[in-house]
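Example S7 (C-alpha cells).
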C-alpha cells in the first residue's frame, strides 16, 4: 500500500503533475505546487464540477469571495472557539502528534491482526472459504475487532468530556512514539487550526485576521447579496471554488492532507423542515457525479456520521479507496440554520427570507456539499496509474485518465523530421488547438513518444507519415488499447469530440 502511494508521488513529480513546494529550499511540509500537467488536470476537474453544479442546475449560481474576511465571521461560525484538534508532544523525541490519530492508529493494529487471520484462513480453505461466515464467527477475529471498537469508543468519550483522560488512555494502552517508542508524553491540549495574519501597516491599527479554513463562510455572508440581486427563490444554491488553509498537525499522505488546499463547496438554501429530504437528494446526486468519472463503483462508499458537529442535524462522507485505504473525499452536511442565525446575531442584521407561499419570514436552512479538489486529484491520479506488462515482454506505465479531464487530449507527431512531415503535422496542430489542448512533438523515436504520452494520460496520438502527403490520412493511436487506425485528417474532430468533451 505504502509502495503504491510512493509510486504515484514519484510519477507525479517526474511527469510535471505535483512538485513539493519551495523544493529549491528543501520544501515546506504539507505544501505542494502543481506543475505543467497538474494544473491542466486540476483545471479540468474544476470545470467538470462547475459545469455539473452551476451550469446544469438553473437554481445554483457561483461566486468567488475573498480569502480575507472580517475576523468576527470566525467567531460567529464557531471556528475561533471550536476549530481545534487535540495535540500531544513526546517529551523525549520532541515530536508532535494529533492525540486522536495516535490512538486511532493503535486501534487499527487490531484490525490488521483480524485481517491476517482472515488471510490465513483463506489460504487454508481455498475455494470453499466463506469469508462472511468466518468473519462473523471466528473467535479471534471477533475479539480483535471488539478490542479495536472499545478503544475507539473510549477515545470518542475522552475527546468529548476531558482531554486529560485522552492522555490517560494513551498511557494505559502503552502507546509510544511510533519511531522511537518513547512513552514520555505531555498533557493533551487543544490546538486551533486557523492561520493568523495581520491587516494594516501600523502596529497600533493593524487588525488580526485569519486565512479562511473553509470557503463556506464566504457563501453564507453573501447569501443576502445573491438572493436579492439574483432575485432568487428558495430552494437555491450558491457554489464556490477556492483556497482554504488549515494548520494541520499531522501532515502526511501527499496531497490528501495539506496546509493550503482547494475546496469546491455548494450551499443549498431550503425551507426549514425540508432539509433532510434535500440532504438525501444531494447525497445521491453527488455520489452519481463521482461515479460518472468512471473510477469504479467499488471504490466509493458512504460513511454516515453518528457523532454530529455542533452545526449539523445529518452528515455523511463520500469515502474513496485511496492507496492508503477508504478515506473522506467529500462531506455532505445538513447544517440547519446554524450559520445564518449566527451571522444574524453577530452582525446585528436581519438575514431572513420572505416565503411568498407560506406568507412568512424565516432564516433558511442549509444543505452543504464540500469536496476537496486536491483529494479528488489524488483519487483520479492514483486510480489511473497502471503498470502494464505487454505481450512483447516490455512494460509501460500508463495513466488511464478519463479522457474528458486528461491534461492533453491529443499529441501530434511527424514520423520523421523531414520531407515536409513536420509542416503537415504543424498544420493539423494549428487547426485543432482552438478546440483542444493539443501537443506537437518531433523528438525521439515514435515508440518513445507514445510512452511519454501514455505516462501523462493523453488519450490519442496522431502520426503523420509519407502516405499522409499522398492521401491526407493519418494513424490515430488509442492510449488504452494501443491499437492504431488509419483515418482521414478531415474526420479527426468528429472522432475525438464525443470522447474528450465533458
Ligand atoms: P478530515 O476529517 O479528513 O480532516 P474534514 O472533515 O475536516 O476532513 P471538511 O471540513 O468536511 O473536512 O472539509 C471538506 C472537504 O475538504 C473534505 O472532504 C476534504 O476533501 C477537503 N479537505 C479538508 N481538509 C483538507 C486538507 N487538509 N487537505 C486537503 N483537503 C482537505
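Recovered sequence:
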Amino acid at each position: 500500500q505504502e509502495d503504491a502511494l510512493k509510486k504515484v508521488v514519484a510519477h507525479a513529480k517526474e511527469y510535471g503533475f505535483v512538485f513539493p513546494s519551495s523544493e529549491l529550499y528543501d520544501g515546506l511540509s504539507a505544501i505542494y505546487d502543481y506543475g505543467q500537467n497538474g494544473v491542466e488536470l486540476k483545471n479540468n476537474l474544476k470545470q467538470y464540477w462547475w459545469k455539473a453544479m452551476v451550469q446544469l442546475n438553473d437554481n445554483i449560481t457561483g461566486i468567488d469571495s475573498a480569502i480575507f474576511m472580517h475576523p468576527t465571521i470566525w467567531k460567529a461560525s464557531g471556528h475561533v472557539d471550536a476549530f481545534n484538534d487535540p495535540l500531544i508532544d513526546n517529551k523525549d523525541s520532541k515530536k508532535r502528534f494529533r492525540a486522536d490519530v495516535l490512538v486511532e492508529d493503535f486501534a487499527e493494529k487490531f484490525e490488521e491482526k483480524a485481517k491476517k487471520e482472515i488471510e490465513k484462513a483463506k489460504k487454508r480453505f481455498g475455494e470453499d472459504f466463506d469469508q462472511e461466515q468466518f468473519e462473523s464467527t471466528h473467535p479471534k477475529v471477533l475479539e480483535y475487532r471488539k478490542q479495536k471498537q472499545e478503544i475507539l469508543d473510549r477515545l470518542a468519550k475522552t475527546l468529548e468530556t476531558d482531554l486529560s483522560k485522552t492522555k490517560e488512555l494513551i498511557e494505559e494502552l502503552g502507546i509510544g512514539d511510533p519511531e522511537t517508542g518513547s512513552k514520555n508524553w505531555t498533557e493533551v491540549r487543544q490546538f486551533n487550526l486557523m492561520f493568523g495574519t495581520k491587516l494594516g501597516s501600523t502596529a497600533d491599527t493593524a487588525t488580526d485576521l485569519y486565512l479562511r479554513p473553509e470557503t463556506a463562510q464566504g457563501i453564507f455572508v453573501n447569501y443576502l447579496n445573491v438572493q436579492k440581486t439574483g432575485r432568487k427563490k428558495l430552494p437555491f444554491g450558491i457554489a464556490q471554488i477556492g483556497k482554504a488553509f488549515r494548520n494541520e498537525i499531522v501532515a502526511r499522505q501527499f496531497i490528501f492532507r495539506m496546509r493550503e488546499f482547494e475546496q469546491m463547496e455548494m450551499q443549498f438554501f431550503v425551507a426549514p423542515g425540508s432539509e433532510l429530504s434535500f440532504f438525501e437528494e444531494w447525497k445521491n446526486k453527488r455520489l452519481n457525479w463521482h461515479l460518472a468519472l468512471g473510477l469504479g463503483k467499488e471504490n466509493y462508499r458512504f460513511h454516515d456520521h453518528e457523532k454530529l458537529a455542533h452545526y449539523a442535524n445529518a452528515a455523511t462522507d463520500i469515502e474513496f479507496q485511496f492507496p492508503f485505504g477508504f478515506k473522506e473525499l467529500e462531506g455532505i452536511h445538513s447544517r440547519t440554520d446554524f450559520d445564518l442565525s449566527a451571522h444574524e446575531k453577530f452582525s446585528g442584521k436581519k438575514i431572513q427570507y420572505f416565503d411568498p407561499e407560506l406568507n412568512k419570514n424565516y432564516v433558511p436552512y442549509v444543505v452543504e456539499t464540500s469536496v476537496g479538489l486536491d483529494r479528488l486529484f489524488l483519487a483520479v491520479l492514483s486510480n489511473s496509474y497502471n503498470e502494464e506488462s505487454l505481450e512483447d515482454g516490455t512494460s509501460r506505465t500508463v495513466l488511464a485518465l478519463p479522457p474528458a479531464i486528461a491534461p492533453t487530449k491529443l499529441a501530434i507527431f511527424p514520423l520523421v523530421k523531414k520531407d515536409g512531415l513536420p509542416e503537415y503535422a504543424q498544420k493539423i496542430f494549428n487547426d485543432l488547438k482552438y478546440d483542444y489542448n493539443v501537443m506537437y512533438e518531433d523528438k525521439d523515436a515514435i515508440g518513445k513518444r507514445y510512452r511519454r504520452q501514455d505516462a501523462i494520460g493523453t488519450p490519442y496520438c496522431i502520426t503523420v507519415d509519407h502516405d499522409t502527403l499522398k492521401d491526407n490520412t493519418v494513424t490515430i493511436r488509442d492510449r488504452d488499447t494501443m491499437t492504431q487506425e488509419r483515418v482521414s485528417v478531415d474526420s479527426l474532430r468528429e472522432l475525438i469530440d464525443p470522447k474528450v468533451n465533458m
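Notes on this example. The mean pLDDT is 94.
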